[in-house]
Structures are given as C-alpha cells and as structure tokens.
User: What shape does this take?
Amino acid sequence: KEGETFTGTARVYDNEPSMMRGLENKEIKPGDVVIIRYQGPKGGPGLPEMLTPTSAIMGAGLGDVVALLTDGRFSGGSHGFCIGHITPEAQVGGPIALVKNGDPIRIDARSDQRTIDLLISDEEW
Assistant: This one.
C-alpha cells in the first residue's frame, strides 16, 4: 500500500529552526528522510509540536517525496509521511542521536512490521 514504506537518505537537524533554514536553502531533496531530533520531553524541552516543519515541507511541494522523523510530537494537523514521539529521545541517548547526514534509512509502517532501520554496517555503529 502506498504511504506505508519509505527508503531514503538521512538529512539531520538538531532543532526546528535549523531544519527550516535547511528547507529555505534547498538542502532537503526528494528521497530524504528529514530528522529533527532533541525535541523530546527533555531535549525540547517539553515535547514541541512539529506542525510548522510538516506544513513547510508540504508547502515546498515535498510532502509526497520526503519523510519526517522526530522525537518531538505531531498534532492532528500534520500531513505527509511523518513519525513522531520516537523513544528513547536523542537527549537521553536514544538511537536517533546517532544518525548522520547521508545514512540510508528504511521505514516500514505496515501493521505487521512497524520498523525504522538504519542501513549501515555493524562497524559504523
């Protein structure tokens, strides 16, 4: 089914303002998995809502060709392939803190899978 899987390249930002600058500077390309980390309850602090980034991605015409992962949260107004509330969050050493720009990522949101895989070698971990 469309919209349940996505494979792309990590584009990593440590906060919402840097992601917005990246979008304005055309750093985000089709096929990217945009990661906004350090937005969880401790890192945010307070678990900020990610409506602005999802709206900006949609407004840039990238809503169907990029995914967004965050340890922040989404409201009911967000659109596109987005996954939030990733735990453990980056601030407490969760795996999202280890992702680097250019890392290949596979997301499978089908009900029998529900995985996010960083496609790097064991040596890179």
